[in-house]
Each structure stands twice: as C-alpha cells, then as structure tokens.
Automatic annotation (TrEMBL), chain A:
Coiled coil: none annotated. This is Phosphate ABC transporter ATP-binding protein (PhoT family). SMART domains: AAA (SM00382). The lineage of its organism: Bacteria, Pseudomonadati, Pseudomonadota, Alphaproteobacteria, Sphingomonadales. It comes from the Bacteria. Its main location: membrane.
UniProtKB/TrEMBL annotation, chain B:
Keywords: Cell inner membrane, Cell membrane, Membrane, Phosphate transport, Transmembrane, Transmembrane helix, Transport. It comes from the Bacteria. Residues 229-446 form the ABC transmembrane type-1 domain. It comes from Blastomonas natatoria. Gene3D superfamilies: MetI-like. GO terms for biological process: phosphate ion transport. InterPro entries: MetI-like, MetI-like_sf, Phosphate_PstC, PstC_N. This is Phosphate transport system permease protein. It is found in: Cell inner membrane; Cell membrane. Signal peptide: none annotated.
From TrEMBL, chain C:
InterPro entries: DUF3333, MetI-like, MetI-like_sf, Phosphate_PstA. PROSITE patterns: ABC_TM1. Residues 207-414 form the ABC transmembrane type-1 domain. Signal peptide: none annotated. The chain crosses the membrane at residues 38-59, 211-232, 252-272, 278-302, 323-345, 398-417. Gene3D superfamilies: MetI-like (1.10.3720.10). One of its GO terms (molecular function) is phosphate transmembrane transporter activity. GO terms for biological process: phosphate ion transmembrane transport. It is a multi-pass membrane protein. This is Phosphate transport system permease protein PstA. CDD domains: TM_PBP2 (cd06261). Its main location: membrane.
C-alpha cells in the first residue's frame, strides 16, 4: 500500500505523510500518506465512518475547531508544513477552500456571500474590483446567469443546488489553490448533482480538487484519481479507472462490488 | 375555635372515614365476593372525599359571607342607630370596630367603635359557631352517604378518578381566573379614573403633579408623559446600554472562547446576578452607586447632579438584566447551525470575524427578541427605581438628573392613607394598566420573533 | 461556461499571501481578534466584579450589624425594689412580681449613679428593655447587685466600629479605658423584631412573616401548579380553551410583579375585604406569581419522562390517572422540585407586590397567624433603608446578608437537584 502513495511527483500540490488523527483517546486516522496534484480531481471513497471526511478536514486544519482533536504527521502545501507555527491558519484556509456536505450560505445577500472572503482578506482595493471578483466567481460557479438580476436577494432563498453552487462561488472568490469538497452533492437532487459534477470538470486544472463522496458512480464520473478509505486507513490509492476496474486490494474489491458499506 | 382548627378537625375526620371505608371494602375481598370492581383504598378515597370536600367548600363560602352577616346583626342593634348617617363616616367606624374586635390592643380614633367592638365579637363568634356546626354536619352527612354506597360492584375508582380530573381542570382554570382578575380589576379602576381625568390628558399631558383635588368633576396634574419618559429612559435606554453589550459579549465569550472549565464556573456566577432580589440592588444603588456617580458628576463640573439619578438606577438595573440578555443571546447563538460557523472559518475568517459577521447577524432575530423581553422586564421593575430614581417628574435627558417612573409612582400613590376612591389611588391602576398592556405587547412581539427565528433554523 | 470567463480573472490569479501588505493586514486582523476576545473577557469580568463588589459592600457593612457594643451598668436591684423574697419568684406569682418592677426607673437611676447626670447618652434609648429582658430570663438576678451589659447608643456603637462624632469617640475612649465597654454577638438582631432604635431591632419578626407567607404560597402554588401542569401535559384536549389556559399561564409568567400587587389590592383587600398587611394575602398574591413558574417547570419535567414509561404502565392495565400519579409524576419530581425552589426563591425576594397590599406593617412583635399584621424580610430591608438614623445602615446590610444566605442556598439546592437528576435518560 505504500508503493502507490510514495510516488512523489514534482507537481504535487499537497502531500500528507503518515497522518494520524485522534479524537481524545480514539484514533480516527491511522497513518495516511497521499499526494494531491493540480491536474487531477482526487476522490476519497469508503464506507461511512471510515475517516475520509476527517482526513479531508485535516487538509485545511478545520479539525482545529474541535477541541479534543489532535493531528500527528506531516501535511505540506507547496512543500510547507501546514501544521508548523510559521503557517498561518487563516491564510491556509484561504488557500485551501472548502465546500460542505450541506449547502451553508450565510444569511446574507448573494453578493455579500461571495464578497465575504475577498472582504475579510482584503483582496479587492475598491468596489469595482470587488464587483468584478463577485461576478467572475459566480460566472465560474455557473450561477451568474441565474442570479445576476437579484444579487441583493438572500442567499438562503436559493434552491438547494443553487445554494451549493453559491458556496462554491464563495470558496473560489478568495482564489484558493486547493478546493476540498465534503460530499457536496449528498443533499441535492440528481439534476443539481449533475450541474455540480459538470462544474467540477470545469474547475479542474485551475485548482487542485479533492472530493469526498459515498457515491462510487460519482467518484468514477468526476475524478481521475481515487483513494479508498476503510477503518481509518487508506487501503488503496490510484487512477480511478484502475481502482474501479482492477483493484489490487481485496477490501477495495469487496467495497466496490457492494459487499459492505 | 379558629378556622384553622376546624380545617384540621375536618381533615382528621376525613382520615378516619378513609380508614373505615377502606376496612369495610377490604372485608368484601376477604369474604370472597367474586367481582370487586375497585381496590379498597379507592373506596377509602371516595368516602374521604365526600366527607371533606363539601365541608371545606362550605367553610370557604361561609368565611366570605359570615363577616357580612355579622355586620348586618350589628347594624340591627340599638347602638348602631346612633351612628352618623354619612355613609363614609359610618363605614369608617364600623371597620374600626371590627378591627378592634379582632385585636383589642389597637388604637382607635372613634369612641363609637369601642362600644361596637363587643357586639362585633359576639356576632362574629356566633356566626363562626354556626359555620363550624354546619361544616361538621356536612362532613358527617357526606361521609355517611359515601359509606352506604360501598358495595362490591361499586365503581369507586371511576368516581375518584373523575373527581381527580375535575380537580386538574379546576387547577388549570386558576391561571385564567388570575388573568381575568388582573385585567378586570385594572380596567374597572381605570375606567373610574377616566371619569375624573380624560384619557387624552393622562396619556399626553406633560404635567405630573397628582393631588386629590377635584375641580368641576375633573382632577388635574395627571399628565403621565414624564413618567413614561422616565421609564423608557431608565429601563429601555440606560439599562439596555449596560445590559446589551455586557450580556451579549459575556454570552459570546462564554460560548465561543472560554474553556469548558471556565464556562462551568462563570455561568452560575452570572446567574447569581439574576437571583439577587431587586430590593438588594435598590439598596446598593441608593447606598453606593448613586453617591459615587454624584461625586463623579460634580468632579467633572455637573454641579446640579442629583443624588437620586436616572443613571444610578439605570446602571444597576442594567447589571441585573445582564444574565437575562446573556442567556437569551446564548440560546440564539447556539441555535445558529454549526455549518455556518464552519463555512466562515473554512473561508479563512478569524473567530471574531465569524462571530461579528456571521453568527451575530444570523442570531439577530433571537437576540432582538431577547432584548425586547429584557426591556419588558426592565420597565416593570420596581424596587430599584423606587429606591434610587427619585420622585421628581422631570422631562430631561440628563442622566445625572432625577427622573421618576411608572412603577415608582404606583408605589408612591398607593402607600399612605389614601382611600380607594381618590383619583390618586385610581391613577395607580391606570398606570398599572398602561404598564400591563405595554409589557404584554412587548412579550407577544418578542415571543413571535423568537419563534419565527427558531423555526427558520429547524 | 468557462469559455465566458473574462481574461482579467486569470491574469490576477494567485494572491501574494507572503507580501508585506498582506502580512500587515493579517497582523491587524489578529490584533482585532485579540481585542474582541478581550472585550468578551472584560464583559464577564465586569459582571462578576460587580457581583463581588455588591457582596463585599453588603458583607462589609452588614457584618457590623451582627455585632453589638455594650457598656456595663451595675444595678443594685434589692436597693431599688425593696426586698423580694424567693417565693415571690416562683410559680404563678412570678409574672405579677416582675410586672411590679419599674425597670425603666431603676435603669435611669442606675445610669445616673454610675455615669453621672448625662450618663444616659452612653446607652441606647431602649437599653432598659434589654435590662428587662435579662431579668425576665433570669428572675434570680432581682435578688442581688449585678453588673449588666447593655447596648450603647448608636453613636458610641459607631465609634467602636468605625468613626463617629467627636463627643462619642471621646466617650468611647473613656469607657474603654475603664473597661466598661465590650463588643459581642448581637443575639437580639436574630431574635428581635422591628423597632425605632437600631440598637435593639431584629429580623425575627420579618423572617417569621416571610416564613408564614412562604408557607401559604407553597401550599397554594405547588398543588395548583403541579395539577395544572399534569392536566395540560397529559390530559388536555387540543382546543382553543386549552390554548387560552396556556396563553394565560405564559402571560402571567411575564407580568411585572407590581401588577400582582395591584391585583391583590383590588381583589383580595378591596373586593373580598381580607385583612390588610396579613401574611395570608401576601401568600395568596405571591402564589399567583409563583404558580406559572411551577407550571412551566413541571410541564418540562413531565415532558422529559419518556413515553415508554407511560406505555409500559398502560400495558399492565393502569388507568390514565394511575399512569400519571403512579409512574410519571414520581419520575418528574426532581424537575418539579427544582422549578418550585426557584419559584419560591423568587417569591421570597419579592418586595413590590407586598408593598401594594400593605405588608409594611410596623410591628414590634412577630406575627402569630395568617391574619396578623406582618412584614417580610425584603420589605423590612426596604423600610430600614429609608430610616434616617445612621445606625440602620448596618442593620439593613445585615438583613440583606440573611436574605441572600437564604436565597443563595435555595438556588444552590436547585442547581444541585438539577445536576444530580437531570441526565437520567
């Protein structure tokens, strides 16, 4: 299992080495190593409770918000350890954006939702540039045409799928390098899901994208690389086509063929 | 025999009835009757109920009727014929005589009362005796009636349970009765007040200088605007300027920053602030805060600062309200879904940015509702303002001046020897009705806001 | 969609996170974060410091209220009363004998004899009643010459504790030099009643008034509150009438307390002509105020009993009344008790409604029944706080300490009950 993870590519945007996560006494992640590059969408799959979401949250230190969580091991962004004291967590999260399972727009206008990040990070020196950033982000998230006439409406008034695209627009407004998506479609209907998947295709290459999904078809559709998690370990990591057609590990095969999960 | 003793005796008789009825029902079971419907204890309860309830109800009714019967008997006596014909004087003497008959050490003002007092004693003890006898008769009759009904197939449990349900319903009705009592008494006296002072004058008049003088059927000096202003100034402005920032920031700190240990200790300590009685705050405001504020005001050049200032009362009231605002804010912030907080933190916002720009705006309806409830509590608060705010009905925005409030004036108007028909007494009820209506509206609006807000995140 | 992207967006890509401007901005943001956190801490600190300050002031002033300053007075009773034989002090003759002694005159004479013409200034105006009480407690003292300790005037009392007028401080110095003055625990404060002389007042009268009032309140509010809660939670049909009851209860819980005073005045005193100033009326009024608190607490406690308990009881054939009274209520008792104690604590601290129904009676003897004129502890505090005599300041604070001890221990019991029983299911 180490063979396929140790293939350190020079293009690797983020890499994790022997990461362990503890919740109090309980160990949730038992030594995961992985490389994430700019060119590929990486999917994390596995049965629920396998630790895939927990691992995702270590990549932008969202686990810091849980008092009892403790992380060991090295995670680097562009070669810099994100858990080192010189790494500022506020900047880290701006560079590694996140989209959540349930759409969580702020109870503000659509415009203010997207402008939130640029405002707090001071990315736009004037109103005109802020307008431009908001427009670009909404365009890139494929939402512009639907909302351009009602930017001052509340973000919570949108449909579920629109809300989730708003959250993606919000994440890309701060121009991140990596986008983490935690089951972004699990609360959406199939049509909205299709739109998000299409969006992920278009964002690929511009951002390193990691998506957690419980839906294997989705992983197969949107990702180029797939990691299979089970009981806190990463069982297998490789090209998506290989994982789904020719898994090397017994457990991966069992999961993919529907024995458990 | 005192009423209390009679109650205890009847309770004792009830217990005896219970024991005998239970024993009687118990014998059916021992004698092997096939189908006994209810357990013996239910027969006991059934009989005891019949023995106690009618007698007690009778006693309660009798205790309200008996004094009137006593007065009637006294008025029939030859001594009463010498009483003055003026209804008011007459009533005064009679009530004094009655008080004297109950407490012989009392000082009296009318000598006539001294002669009437023994008559009252005699009449009262006579009717007390009649009442007690009748109650005991009822008690025995009820117990005996129930006792004869004890048979194996008698559904004692059903009967007892039916009575219990009736009792439950009656208990619930007391809340309605109390509300009706409040509304009725306030409206009744207020209408009488508005016969003497026009509602327009009361609600919009700028002069508060109440007196008993009635000229052409109209009383003057009942313009309540200075009172309304004082109430708003102290309760809704100064107190809230203290309570909102401190309460909100305490809630934010305790829920978002403090460690579990600090929270565990600090929350109850803040709650103590809400448990301190208002008379203690009032004393503290008058004894310590007001003089300190006055010397501070004088030292910065406000020479006309009053020793009873709006600021002293408002500050202390604000502190009293802190735990209230804090717990409402705490609930509202807790109701904001955690995903919103995570969403903001994941954007790279700091904690304070998240709190200021996401959590508090999202919790705002709940916080506003809580603040409205706090305002309604502050303007109804009495002791702090009575002890620290003063009586001068000033229309001023100077926090170091003395202002007066609705509740202060209610206390002021009702303490002292005013009689129940004077415009001053009635004015207190009019003020009470105003206060009741305003706090009720604030509460309804606040609860609606809070409810809507909770539904939005459910 | 991406085809429509303006090229500008691509050109401005990759923010320079490490640049100077961005670093300064981050520093500013962290400073704001620390400031905000500090404000939060300050808010908590200010609130708790205020509480601490209040308690310190009350304890600082009030502790002195529990101490009394006494001066000696040597009284030769046989010389003043003529000889009294021991058998006059036994059995039924005792009270007649004691009544025949003019303690006040004897006191005045003894003071003049020991301290000269102006000696009376050393003692409290009611110091002679202290002498009388000591004689009643121990009649044998009548038979001899005794050195009594009697309360000093409040000026000298304050000279002993703090500072006072120059004359009083000089007097105190003289007394101290002769060893004729001491400070001791003020038993009278705990056993006495209201009065005009701060040296002899006590809180027992008010405390007893409070206790009687609370008993009335508890006996009315607790059963009614619990029964109403049972009805609303377990049996009430969902209709407009039930809604009316619920609205009434929630409304009563939010009505300012002074309105209950107006209700008591108009309904109990005026309409039902109940006696003024009586604990009965006070208890009734407070019961109406406390009942909604108990109803709300009891409903929550009953609601918290899991439905499985009800189903289990129903399953073995219990009637609806038996289900509630045998199974649900016993399990809800801790929650009900907590709510009741909190409601009673609030009633115990309540002042305004009792002022309205005249429970500010000046009585120098504790009330003996439900209809005796009485006052309660908070009202006593209010009345003393209005006294001009400086000696009342420490008595007021001391009474506040007693009230707070009661209230805080009630609240502590409630918190204990809540923590002990809350997480049962």
């Amino acid at each position: 299992m180490l063979d396929n993870t140790a293939t350190t590519s020079t293009k690797s945007k983020m890499s994790a080495r022997d990461v362990k996560v503890f919740y109090g006494e309980k160990q949730a992640i038992k030594g995961v190593s992985i490389d994430i590059d700019m060119d590929n969408v990486v999917a994390f799959i596995g049965p629920s409770g396998c630790g895939k979401s927990t691992f995702l949250r270590t990549l932008n230190r969202m686990n810091d918000t849980i008092p009892i969580a403790r992380v060991e091991g090295d995670i680097t962004l562009d070669g810099e350890n994100i858990y080192s004291s010189s790494m500022d967590v506020v900047q880290l999260r701006a560079r590694v954006g996140m989209v959540f399972q349930k759409p969580n727009p702020f109870p503000k206008s659509i415009y203010d939702n997207v402008a939130y990040g640029p405002r707090i990070h001071g990315l736009a020196p004037n109103k005109a540039e802020l307008d431009q950033i908001v427009e670009n982000s909404l365009v890139r998230a494929g939402l512009w045409n639907e909302v351009k006439d009602r930017l001052q409406d509340s973000g919570t008034a949108l449909s579920g799928g629109q809300q989730q695209r708003l959250c993606i627009a919000r994440a890309i407004a701060v121009d991140p390098e990596v986008i983490l998506m935690d089951e972004p479609c699990s609360a959406l209907d199939p049509i909205a899901t299709a739109k998000i998947e299409e969006l992920i295709h278009e964002l690929r290459g511009r951002y390193a994208i990691v998506i957690v999904t419980h839906n294997m078809q989705q992983a197969a559709r949107v990702s180029q690389k797939t990691a299979f998690f089970h009981l806190g370990t990463m069982v297998e990591y490789g090209d998506t086509s290989d994982i789904f057609t020719n898994p090397r590990e017994e457990r991966t095969r069992d999961y993919i063929t529907g024995r458990y999960g | 025999m005192t009423t209390t003793a009679i109650f205890f005796l009847i309770a004792g008789l009830g217990l005896i009835t219970w024991v005998f009825a239970r024993a009687r029902a118990g014998r059916f079971i021992q004698s092997g009757v096939a189908s006994v419907h209810s357990l013996p204890s239910y027969h006991g309860w059934y009989a005891a109920m019949w023995a106690v309830v009618p007698a007690v109800l009778f006693l309660l009714v009798w205790s309200t009727v008996a004094p009137a019967l006593g007065s009637y008997q006294v008025l029939e006596s030859p001594l009463a014929a010498q009483l003055p014909t003026d209804a008011f004087e007459r009533a005064a003497i009679l009530s004094e005589a009655r008080a004297l008959s109950r407490n012989p050490d009392l000082k009296v003002f009318n000598d006539a009362a001294v002669q009437l007092a023994p008559l009252y004693s005699a009449a009262d003890s006579r009717y007390a005796m009649i009442g007690a006898l009748a109650a005991f008769l009822l008690c025995f009759a009820g117990g005996a009636f129930a006792f004869t009904r004890i048979r194996p197939d008698f559904r004692a449990r059903t009967q007892v349970e039916r009575t219990v349900m009736l009792g439950l319903l009656l208990a619930s009705l007391i809340a309605i009765l109390a509300t009706l009592g409040i509304v009725a008494s306030l409206i009744f006296e207020t209408v009488r007040f508005f016969n003497l002072v026009s509602p327009f004058e009361f609600l919009f008049g700028l002069q508060w200088n109440p007196s008993d003088k009635i000229v052409d059927g109209q009383a003057t000096g009942f313009g309540a605007v200075p009172l309304f202003w004082g109430t708003v100034f102290i309760g809704a402005i100064i107190a809230m300027l203290v309570a909102i920032p401190l309460g909100l920031m305490s809630a934010v700190y305790l829920t978002q920053y403090a460690s579990a240990n600090v929270r565990k200790w600090m929350k109850p300590i803040l709650e103590i602030l809400a448990g301190v009685p208002t008379v203690v705050y009032g004393y503290f405001a008058a004894l310590t805060v007001a003089p300190a504020l006055r010397s501070f005001a004088v030292s910065i050049g406000i020479t006309d600062a009053s020793s009873e200032s709006a600021l002293a009362a408002g500050l202390v009231m604000g502190v009293m309200i802190i735990p209230f605002v804090s717990s409402m804010a705490d609930d509202s912030i807790a109701a904001v879904p955690g995903s919103m907080r995570d969403g903001s933190l994941a954007m790279g916002a700091t904690k304070s940015e998240t709190i200021k720009q996401v959590l508090i705006p999202a919790a705002l309806p709940g916080v506003v509702g809580g603040v409205l409830l706090a305002v309604s509590r502050a303007i109804g608060e009495t002791m702090i303002v009575v002890m620290a705010a003063g009586l001068a009905a000033n229309l001023t925005a100077n926090p170091f001046a003395s202002v007066t409030t609705v509740t202060t004036q209610i206390v002021q108007l009702l303490t002292g020897d005013t009689d129940f028909n004077s415009p001053m007494t009635l004015a207190a009820f009019a003020l009470g009705l105003t206060l009741f209506v305003v706090t009720l509206l604030l509460n309804i609006v606040a609860l609606q806001i809070v409810k809507k807000y909770r539904e939005a995140y459910d | 969609m991406s085809a429509s992207n303006p090229p500008a967006a691509t050109a401005s890509r990759k923010t320079d996170w490490m640049g100077d401007a961005m670093q300064r901005r981050i520093a500013r943001r962290y400073a704001a974060e620390r400031r905000f956190k500090f404000f939060g801490l300050a808010a908590v600190a200010i609130s708790s410091l205020f509480l601490a300050f209040l308690l310190v002031v009350m304890v600082g002033n009030g502790a002195k209220g529990f101490i009394t300053t006494e001066a000696t007075l040597t009284v030769d009773l046989p010389a003043a009363t003529g000889s009294i034989s021991p058998d006059q002090l036994t059995g039924p003759r005792l009270s007649a004998t004691m009544a025949s002694i003019d303690v006040r005159r004897i006191f005045d004479q003894a003071v003049q004899a020991q301290y000269g013409k102006d000696g009376a200034r050393y003692f409290a105006t009611t110091a002679w009643t202290a002498l009388r009480d000591q004689l009643i407690d121990n009649p044998n003292l009548v038979m001899g010459k005794t050195r009594f300790w009697l309360p000093t005037s409040s000026d000298i009392d304050r000279a002993a504790k703090d500072r006072s007028t120059p004359e009083a401080e000089a007097d105190y110095a003289v007394l101290t030099q002769k060893g004729d003055v001491r400070q001791s625990f003020n038993m009278q404060f705990l056993t006495g009643s209201d009065g005009t002389d701060p040296a002899r007042v006590g809180i027992w009268g008010a405390l007893k008034g409070s206790l009687i009032t609370m008993v009335v309140t508890l006996f009315l509010a607790f059963p009614v509150g619990v029964l109403a809660a049972v009805y609303l939670e377990e049996y009430a049909p969902k209709n407009r009438f039930t809604d009316l009851i619920e609205v009434s209860i929630n409304n009563l819980a939010a009505v300012p307390s002074i309105i209950f005073g107006l209700l008591g005045l108009a309904v109990f005193l005026q309409f039902l002509s109940m006696p003024r100033s009586a604990a009965l009326v006070g208890g009734l009024t407070l019961a109406l105020m406390t009942m909604p608190v108990i109803v709300i607490a009891a409903r929550n406690a009953i609601k918290a009993v899991p439905p499985s308990i009800r189903e289990a009881a129903m399953g073995v054939g219990a009637s609806p009344v038996q289900v509630v009274f045998h199974h649900v209520l016993p399990l809800a008792i801790p929650g009900i008790m907590t709510g009741t104690i909190i409601g009673m604590a609030r009633a115990l601290g309540e002042t305004a409604p009792l002022l309205m129904i005249g429970m500010r009676a000046f009585t120098t003897t504790p009330p003996d029944g439900l209809t005796d004129p009485a006052t309660v502890l908070p009202v006593q505090i209010f009345l003393w706080s209005d006294e001009v005599n400086r000696g009342f300041v420490e008595k007021t604070s001391a009474a506040i300490i007693v009230l707070l001890v009661f209230l805080l221990s009630m609240n502590a019991i409630a918190v204990y009950l809540r923590n002990r029983f809350e997480t049962r299911w």
